[in-house]
Amino acid sequence: MLRAGIVGLPNVGKSTLFNAITRTRNAEAANYPFCTIDPNVGIVSVPDARLEVLRRIAKTNVVIPAAIEFVDIAGLVKGASQGEGLGNKFLTHIREVDAVVQVVRCFEDEDVHHVAGTIDPVRDIEVITTELILADLEVVQKRREKLAKDMKRGDKAAAAEEAVLAKIEAALDAGKPALTVSLAPEERALSAPFFLLSDKPTIFACNVKESDLATADSNPFVKKVREYVGTHLACEAVVISAQIESDLVDLAPDEAEAFLRELGVEESGIGVLIRATYHLLGLRTYFTAGEKEVRAWTIHAGDTAPAAAGVIHSDFERGFIKAETVAYDDLVRCGSVAAAREKGLYRMEGKDYVVADGDVMLFKFNV
Description:
With about 375 residues, the protein is an alpha/beta fold. It is built from 14 helices and twelve strands.
């Protein structure tokens, strides 16, 4: 299961957000820096309205959603790459995740301490980005020193790796994270083993006050974050109110919906954030649907039918024959598999078929 790490400066709402995402109280959320040291981990279901629709079509009461893992990582501070604030330990935790959710404080509150004393989300983003870049520079420079010796012996593999790292180091030297470097697939494969911190797919969560959630698009802090991360980091920003989400944990679903409506908000920001993180990881969903259960299965974008079958069981991939497939929208329009088959929308796909997000599938295999 792929993992997303929640990071940010101390006291920006990371642990509160983690508790809301995982619907627990496992992470201590306190008004002082470094209240989290060891990372908290939680498995999170991916909200998907299509599951309920498929449940009704399949006439079943069992629904199993897709899931990803979230990790609450302690706050980073300036100097983390040099060990400040237990920085080395926290950077190691970031290295172990597949994607990063960076929480950025976008509200004023004299009662909630900010490590820098003032609210400036762009500055906060730059502090963390700089620490990740500095840590990556050290990794890249050490590796290039080693490669120099191999290149003197005429090692072609070392030369290819050196060329890629030279590109990355040039960007890091210019203060740009590794994820902004344009690399061909074969070049990215060479850089992947280094698990560079600034190369992690990243999404920014703008944490706003309860009273600002409905009008967050006009919040000047949110505007600055969206403009900055879009221009300089080629990343997306979503809006959440960690405190509201934490309060929703204790409410029944219908009560939570009513509470959000009173605030002028249609959907919990957590749902948007989880789905955005899921796609950030390059993940897609296909479904199986029958009287026994409706289930969402997680694959990578671009996976073929045999690889998708292998997610269920390795035997399915090894003995793959064909995949009976219907697109979600077609199935919903028709109302049943039988009706979709009558209209020619229920297809037989082979080994080369690239599974689309939302496909409803039944695999035939022989082992």
